[in-house]
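TA notes, week 10

Several of you asked for a full example with nothing omitted. So below is the full record: structure tokens for the whole chain, then the designed sequence directly under it. When grading your own attempts, check the secondary structure regions first.
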């Protein structure tokens, strides 16, 4: 079941990626664990003043709407 959810998350992240790429940014799926999706925002998104807005208002809200099992999204900096 976890693999199915991860595949769905990756598919939805690919949908979001198109919009981030327009602004010079990108998003990378890191992992899904305990209801949380870990991603890494890169490119222009990594240093944008609106990073938190993009993460919560765009990425998290879209993923939670599409996949009810998701509790939240966390941006990691590696």
């Amino acid at each position: 079941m976890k693999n199915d959810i991860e595949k769905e998350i990756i598919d939805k992240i690919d949908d979001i990626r198109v919009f981030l790429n327009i602004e010079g940014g990108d998003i990378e799926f890191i992992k899904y664990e305990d209801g949380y999706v870990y991603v890494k925002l890169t490119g222009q998104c990594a240093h944008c003043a609106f990073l938190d807005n993009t993460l919560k208002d765009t990425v998290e809200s879209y993923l939670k709407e599409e996949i009810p099992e998701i509790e939240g999204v966390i941006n990691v900096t590696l």
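The chain is about 45% helix and 25% strand. Use that as a sanity check on your answer.
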